[in-house]
Known about the structure:
The protein is of the alpha+beta class. The protein has helices at 4-18, 40-47, 99-109, 134-148, 165-168, 189-193, 258-266, 272-277, 287-297, 310-329, 343-346, 396-425, 430-438, 464-467, 469-483; strands at 23-28, 52-58, 61-66, 71-75, 81-84, 114-115, 121-122, 176-177, 182-183, 209-215, 220-224, 231-235, 353-355, 361-367, 370-374.
Amino acid sequence: MPELPAVERVRALFEKHIQGHRIVSVTAVEDPLVFAGLTKDQVEAHLLNHTVIGSHRRGKQLWFELDSGMFMTMHLGMTGSVDQRGAKAFVYGTDTPSAKTAAAVGALAAGQRKLDIDGVLQAPPSHQEVPTSRASRTRTKRRRVATETCTETRGIKSEPVAAGAAEADAPVSQSKQGKQGRRATAKTKGETAARLDDKQAPSWPPRHAKVCFVLDNGNEFYFRDQRRFGRLTFTNDIKSHPSVAPLGRDPINDWFGLDEFCEMLSGTQRPIKAVLLDQHVMAGVGNWIADDALYMSAVHPARLAPALTRQQAAALHHAIPHICNIAVGLGAETDEMPKGWLIHVRWKSRNKTTQTLDGKTVTFSTVAGRTTAVVAAVQTKGPSIPSKKNKKKPTGLAKASSSRTATARKGSKTGAAAGSKAKAAQPNDKAAVVQRRGTKRKPPAPADDQRETTGRSRTPRQTPHKAGLAPVRASKRKAAAASR
């Protein structure tokens, strides 16, 4: 995914080459996913005959102010980029190719199929090895049609193939490839163009282009996104836009102070790698920036954030903007970055282990759901934050935070105790009442009118109105006997 340096490169490109020039021609494709529900006509209407007057970035989010009062927001997603026609297309995450890889790329341009992860040429299967199922034939036909008309099928008219392309249409002689001696089948220039980089493709616009626009000075630019995780939308209120409003601090434009940074780390219980990747906390810090910053700070990515010492927090606080500024100054070109950085081993090593320049082993694990490079000889995991069951004392930033909390609690308890003593010293007439209420009272003796004629007293549980009915009923029975 393009991180802060690659996104800043796009902002600088807009500011240097696009800002201040009127857009005289726009061609977009139908893609409701990238354009967030907008049609290509709506996108073209927002841009046509308008001028970019401001270029801004926060973290990985871009927005450009138009003279119409609207803002064009742009997120590059996983594979998005903005490039100029005729210039070298930017490819994120690439490094200086070795002689082996360069030879394989030359063979790919001659009509081969693909490269494996180690850069070794893989010849396409022979015609006998191609599956013969109906679904497989249908997929093969669709791919062939898509590569031959890679731009016309997206609603954009292609320009004629450049001179000399006819020479490339000639069949390529078959040669043995690999240990098994498999033979490669020749491919035409039109089929190969879809697999080449944009600087080699003969047609315009390039494959996966979502919108292309021409400026009043004749320069042409395009926004492309192969995997379609990018977004390009328009709004008239950028401050409350959901892609901008929740973003955290920017390592270049709006970074933390050291005390604020330490306070932020002590207020969470997550691993430090998860904190660095949280865009609501640090906007723009991505996977490789986090790994290199933690490596420079000698902090293990899985260590809990409050367990960092202040010295480690200060080193990390310095490393993050330091890496971002160097990468931005180098134009986000991976091969130009310092060779001691871990970014150079992230995409080269696919066997999950490699070494740094000084011979230390680099291993790969998953932390915070992301592939993480760790140099165990430098980055020790260290103590963690104790749970409620663990009675060990906290360390690092958590120790300082807990000491401040304990001091505040001690002060509150001391004040409460002093207040209760002062209250007890004052005369209080209610003390006797409370004491009397605490004693048990004896039940009252039954009244004389509650005694039955037999002389036996009623129990305290019997109600008074039932106790008074007994003599009345006896007198009625005597009167009835006398009348008979």
